[in-house]
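#lab-general

N.A. 3:47 PM
ok so I finally got the sequence cleaned up, no stray characters, all 161 residues accounted for. can someone with queue access submit it? mine expired

B.Y. 3:52 PM
send it over

N.A. 3:53 PM
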Amino acid sequence: MIILIAAISKNNEIGKNNQLLWHLPDDFKRFKTLTTGHYIIMGRKTFESFPKPLPNRTHIIISRQKNYEVENCIVVSSLEEAIKVCPKNEDIYIIGGGEIYKQSIDFADKLEITVVDHNFEADTFFPEIDENKWKIDFEEFHPKDERHLYDFTFLTYILRK
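B.Y. 4:20 PM
back already:
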């Protein structure tokens, strides 16, 4: 199953200058829980935004740079190639960035989305979620608190039958 996982704001903002726009510990925890033990596909810039590779996940990095190499990661030149190197019949998580999400949303099987209840200034966006194609299968609201500056909602979208 191909799963896109992202935290987005009300207007689909996901980042600016290769950085996240918010800090939500419970979202990081959910991301870790869902992706641990799986293959994660990302663009080069998304990978480079991490201080180091994420533990207990197989990283597949899409880059157009011919000699781009990262120790203990798989580097490919296209989304199609990234999906081909993943085991069949296993969950694969696509974790960004904006261009990779745009290329993959039309053949994803599921979306794991955290919606942050705020508008931000951004330069990177998640593609529009087509409500005719996707339906919400799970929804969990989290109010802001001492650890979270914004209200947010976990949403799981599945394809409409």
